[in-house]
Known about the structure:
The structure is a homodimer. The longest helix of chain A has 27 residues, at 340-366. Chain A has helices at 43-49, 58-63, 67-72, 76-80, 92-97, 124-134, 152-175, 192-202, 221-231, 249-257, 267-273, 321-325, 328-336, 340-366, and strands at 2-6, 13-19, 22-26, 28-30, 54-56, 86-88, 102-104, 109-112, 119-122, 138-140, 181-186, 209-212, 241-243, 262-264, 276-281, 289-292, 295-301. In chain A, β11 (181-186), α8 (192-202) and β12 form a beta-alpha-beta unit. The radius of gyration of chain A is 20 Å and the shape is globular. By secondary structure, chain A is an alpha/beta fold. Chain A has two domains: 2-264, TIM Barrel (Alpha-Beta Barrel); 272-366, no CATH class. Chain A binds chain B through residues 35-37, 39-44, 60, 64-65, 69, 72-74, 79-81, 308-309, 311, 321-322, 325-327, 329-330, 332-334, 336-337, 339-341, 343-344, and chain B through 35-37, 39-44, 64-65, 69, 72-74, 79-81, 308-309, 311, 321-322, 325-327, 329-330, 332-334, 336-337, 339-341, 343-344.
Amino acid sequence: MEIIKKSKKSQARIGKLITGHGFINTPFFMPIATKAAVKNISVCELDKLGAEIILANTYHLYLQPGEKLIKKAGGLHKFMNWSGPILTDSGGYQVFSLSKINKIKADGVEFQSHLDGSRHFLTPEKSIQIQQDLGSDIMMAFDVCPAGDAKQKIVAEACATTFDWAKRCYKTWKKSKKNQQLFGIIQGGIYKKLRDQSLKQITSLDFSGFALGGLAVGEDRKDMYKILQYIAPKLLENKPRYLMGLGRPEEIVFAIKQGIDMFDCVIPTREARHGRLYQFCSTKQKGAIKLFGNLAYRTSIIKNEKNKLDYSSINKNSEIKLLRQYSKSYLHHLFKTQEGLGLRLATLNNLEFYLTLMKQIQKAIKNGSL
Amino acid sequence: MEIIKKSKKSQARIGKLITGHGFINTPFFMPIATKAAVKNISVCELDKLGAEIILANTYHLYLQPGEKLIKKAGGLHKFMNWSGPILTDSGGYQVFSLSKINKIKADGVEFQSHLDGSRHFLTPEKSIQIQQDLGSDIMMAFDVCPAGDAKQKIVAEACATTFDWAKRCYKTWKKSKKNQQLFGIIQGGIYKKLRDQSLKQITSLDFSGFALGGLAVGEDRKDMYKILQYIAPKLLENKPRYLMGLGRPEEIVFAIKQGIDMFDCVIPTREARHGRLYQFCSTKQKGAIKLFGNLAYRTSIIKNEKNKLDYSSINKNSEIKLLRQYSKSYLHHLFKTQEGLGLRLATLNNLEFYLTLMKQIQKAIKNGSL
C-alpha cells in the first residue's frame, strides 16, 4: 500500500491500495454484496455511486450457488458482472453467527447450513480454496471470532486457534500463483494483552494486509474505542489496516483517526431495507450527530408520518438522478405499499451517504483538517 | 385518434393517439403501475424500455395514499415522476375483485377496503373526481364487470347499470374543463345480443374512446375470441379501441387483427415476479408459440435447474445493458436467493418483450404483413 499523506492531527492517513482489479483510494468503505449482489441495486448503480470495491461473503456463496459454479462462470467478477476489486471474508464469522450448529475442532469447524441443515466442514485450507475459486482480489484468513462479551479465557483460546489457522492459510496461499492478496486477522477482544499477543503472532506472517476482527461484535462502544485506540497505531504502517464490520459514521471517523484504512458494514444497506435514511445535515439540526469540522449527519425513518406530505427531493444534492427526482412523499408511499423500488431508492441513498462520507474524509485528511 | 394505415389483410390498423402528455403510437401496450409504480423498476427504466404510456389503478391510489395527497403533489405525473401519458381505470374492477364486501346500489358501490376493512362508497361521480384529482390523461368510466362465467341475466343487469353510470360519468366529465379524455366501457360478457346493446348504448355518448370490458375475466379463450371477433369491428372506427386486461402475446395479436388499439395486462410484470421470462424464439423451437409471420415466443422459468449453469446473457439482443451483461445463471441465483435485483431484471426482460412485440406488430401492419 502506498501512503500518500499522513495527518499531523491524528493517526489518519490517505493512500492507494493496488489490487488485481485496479487501485482503491484509502480510507474506503466496502458495500456488502453478501450473495454476490448488493441488495436491491445493480452493478451499474454501484459504479454510479462511485463504489471502488465491494465485499462478498464466502460462507453464503459456498452454500449457494457454490464456489465451483462461480469458478466455472469465470470467477465472482464475471458471475456478478463487477469489474472492480472484490474482498471476500473467510466464512468464519458466519459459520459462528448463522449456522445452526457449529463445533470448533483443531482442524476446522463443523457446521450445519442455515439453509437446509446440510453438514459441512470448513478448514483454513478449504476457506482459501473457496476464496481462490471465487477469485476475489483480497482474501481473508480463516479465524475464530468470539462474541463481544466473551470471557478472557475464551478469547485467549480463539486467539490461539486463529494464529494456528492463520499459519495454515498463509501456507496454502503461498503455494498458489494467483494474483490474490491475503489479509491476516488479529483477534483478542477487548483485552489489551491478548490483542498485543495476537498482533505479534499474526504480523509475524507476511500477509498483504492486517485486519482487526472481533470488534463491533456486541461489546460496549467505549470498550471498542479504548482497545482500538490502543491497538490500531501498533499495526504495521506500510500495510493496509482493515477494521472488520464497522460501523456507524462516527465510529468510522473515530477509527480513521486511529489509522484504519478499510471498512465494511451492513448498516447502509440493511437499514435502507428498514426505511432508515442517512443524510448530512447542519451540526445544529435536531438529532444531528457530529462527525468532524462542520460535518454532521442524521437519520430518519421514511415511513414516519411527517414524510407523507413532504414533496421535496429524497436528496436534492444527490449525484443519483432518481434521488433528486423522486420525493420523500413518494418514497414514503413506496415503503407503505411495500414496493420494491422503495428498497432500491433507500439503498442508493444510504450507500451514497457512506461513500460521500469517505470522500469527505479523504479530502479532510488531504487538506490537513482531520 | 389519427389512423395512419389500415391493414388489407385484417382489421388491424396503426395510428396516433394524442394526449395531454404527448402522443402514443397505436397499437400499444400499457405497463401496469398499480400503486403509482411499475413494480421493481424506475421511471428512467420505463423510458429506456420505450414505454409510451402506463396504467395506474384508481382503487389502489384512492385507498393509499389517497387522491388528495397525489393532487397536492401536482398530480400523478409529478408524484410518480413520469412525464408521459397515464391512463387510470375507474376502480370498478378492483372494487368487485379485491374488496372484502361489495354491494351494488343504484347510486354506486359500497365496499370494504382490502387493506384495513374501512368502508367506502364509490359512485360514478366519485370515480371521475378521483381520476380528475389524479390528473390522468385518459380516464375510464365507472362500470360493472361481471365474472367470466356470469349468467346472461346477471350480465344484462350489469350492462344496464354500466350504461346508467356511463351517462353519469359522461355528465361529470363534460362539466370539467380539464385536459383529460374519458373512455366508455362496453360490457355484455360473451353474449352477442348484450354486446350489441351495450355498444349501442355506450357509443350513443361522445366518449373520447371505447373499451371492451368483461373480457379475459375467466371465460374460455374460444368464447372470448368469438365475441371479440364479433364486436370489435363494430366499434367506431375513428376512436381508439381498448381491450381491457388482455393478455397473452398471441391474444394481443389476435385482438389487433380484430382492430383493437390498446392493451394493458399484469402478465409481464406479475409473471416476472414468479421468475417466468418471455423471449422471442424460432417458430421451430420446442414450446414455441407462433405469433405471426416468423415471429414466435416461448416462456421459461428462470428458477429451473437448467439455467443454473447457463452463463449466456439473459437476452443478448436486449437494448437494456443489464440484460445483456447479467447471465441466466446469475439471474437463477438471484431468484434462488430471493435477491430483489432478480425481480427487477425479470421485469425489465418481460416488459421489453411486450413493448418490442408491439413495435414488431406496428411494423408488420405498416409493411402490410399483418
